[in-house]
Amino acid sequence: MRRSIVPFALLLLAPVAAAQGTREDYARANSVNKWTASKVTSAKVEANWTADGDRFWYKNAKKEFVLVDAVKGTREVVTEDKLPKDAKPVVPNEPNKKGRGAPEEGGEGDAEDACAAQPGRRGTDSPDGRWAAFIQDYNVWLRDRKTKDEAQLSKDGNASDSYDRVFWSPNSNRLVAIKTKAGGDRRVTLVESSPRDQLQPVTSSFHYLKPGDPIPLPKPHLFDVDKKEEVSVSDELFPNPWSVTHERWSRDGRWFYFLYNQRGHAVMRLLAIEAETGRVAAVINEECKTFFDYYGKLYLHYLTNTNEVLWMSERSGWNHLYLVDLATGRATAVTSGPWVVRGVDRVNEKRREIGFRALGVHDGQDPYHVHHCRVKFDGTGLTTLTEADGTHTVEHSPDGRFLIATYSRVDLPPVTELRRNSDGKKVCDLERAGASELLKTGWRYPERFVAKGRDGATDIHGYIVRPSNFDPSKRYPVVEHIYAGPHDHHVRKSFTAAPGEQRMAELGFIVVRIDGMGTNWRSKAFHDVCWKNLGDSGFPDRILWIKAAAEKHKEMDISKGVGIYGGSAGGQSSTRALLAFGDFYTVAVSDCGCHDNRMDKVWWNELWMSWPVGPHYAEQSNVTQAHKLRGKLMLVVGELDRNVVPASTMQVANALIKADKDFDLLVVPGAGHGAAESPYGNRRRMDFFVKHLLGVEPRAR
Questions:
Q1: pTM across the whole model
Q2: Domain end position, chosen among 235, 266, 298
Q3: What are the E-state strand segments in 37-173?
Q4: 387 touches 366 (CB < 8 A)
Q5: Mean pLDDT value across residues 309-322
Q6: CATH number assigned to the domain comprising residue 25
């Protein structure tokens, strides 16, 4: 007999369902954000500090006024008339994000030193005001600002090898110009089949370099301004640049510094050109057996007054900070140990201190939890400012004496406390979020779970999400949400009432998310697993983790195989699961996958798969391996994807057809990257798992 439809409000009061993949399950899954909204009682502590920095007030979740005496460590609820009149809100400072932007950016704030990059744009004046340098007809020219006379400084520039950025020495007698040889002009053409404003399809094309393509080659050239001639500079130490960035003259004008990132990313050097002779010396020389993670871990901060730089490196096997003497190249470790620096927030040159974020600094905690620290340039005085078992954000008081720290976990709503900046000690608790109303809906905290990886020793971290109508006496198919991109870790560490995996879980699944080896922000050895090996995707660790979780939790049913889904790099991995591990994973939905690393964008793939393009690219291609497909696969792609071009998915489809393999293909007209996240794409993904893992005709009941 067909089940009657239960009213939604009643469904929330009695969440235990008799079946899985029902219409009620779909309704609950598609409204997760609604039925979890506003059910966690907390308020962000928006502090209004007094002028002397001793006190502040904020409104709590009950809209009460809370007055805190930071010096005395007291907290009390007061009436509005008791609030200090001079209190003002904090204007937050942006943390230092050097090295975290687009990979090609220099990020050191030198734009004011450089002249225009294209012919005809305005130039830049010399520090002494005598000269103006400008680019004309792809070459560097000088103009006497008093007489207006002009002189051509370089003569070898042309349309395909043009001078652009210009940097004056402080004494105005030397000039460095960056000359960039043009790269390839590979273009990708897309067809929009169903444009909104006309009947006929339209095409568009855009610049899109792929691994192995010729790339722009920037190199610095040194000029003697008085003699109007170039000073010869050997490029022996920078023969094949991926990029030249972080350009800077020394304070005395004797040296010109720049950061050289070699194509293939196994060599990263801070180089110095001697202004008088053109001699080139390596101040910092990182030559890696695998790769230098310039996307996630590049940090260079010039200390001009003391002729030093702060530098980030994994040379010890862990990501740490170093103080380097520019004159000698001598490096002193600022931080060290079996933990990593996640990023630098602030540098106090006067006090010679660094404020930074760290991972893994507290034994016994999740090694991905963000903690805030401070250390002196010489490596002494390391102070951990946060200590609670959670991932942290902080806001400093205007005078820097105190900080408001908020931490949470996937299984702990936010907790906010006041701490002293001098020693990191807690002054008092401020707020603790409550989730009682959320839990009444049947919602459950994700369970953090740890199991040993492929080496039998390394802890692999992830979490388990259960449906709100979870019945511990039942058995649930397991679905993994995968993203194994080496640029980061991807298992969420902070609290949210509506984790992305909850929607899938509500259909009657247990959903897991895992960070296997090859992802970022553990040791260098942990990260290096991805090198020339993106096809690995951490599967040897993931499979062991899921088996260990299922052994502990008998409700996790993996007897008939595990489902898996992901997009972009996760799309590549989820298809790979059925090609290489089809005895474990049996159902996959792959959205906008970069299935063949030769087809995808140049920077992402050369960073992890290296350069030149070798046979390992083809060996790990889902196109090459398509004939090994086992299980049920759905490929999803948007026809206007400009991130991972649609041909990447279509070539997998072509290979599967040639191999006479059954699969589903969903091409979404007009959609870009992430078509499976559209309402229609998401519904089709849900249906696929319901049908093939639950054995239920989607939405039939």
A1: 0.93
A2: 298
A3: 48-49, 55-59, 65-69, 74-78, 88-89, 124-125, 131-136, 139-144, 150-152, 161-168
A4: no
A5: 98
A6: 3.40.50.1820
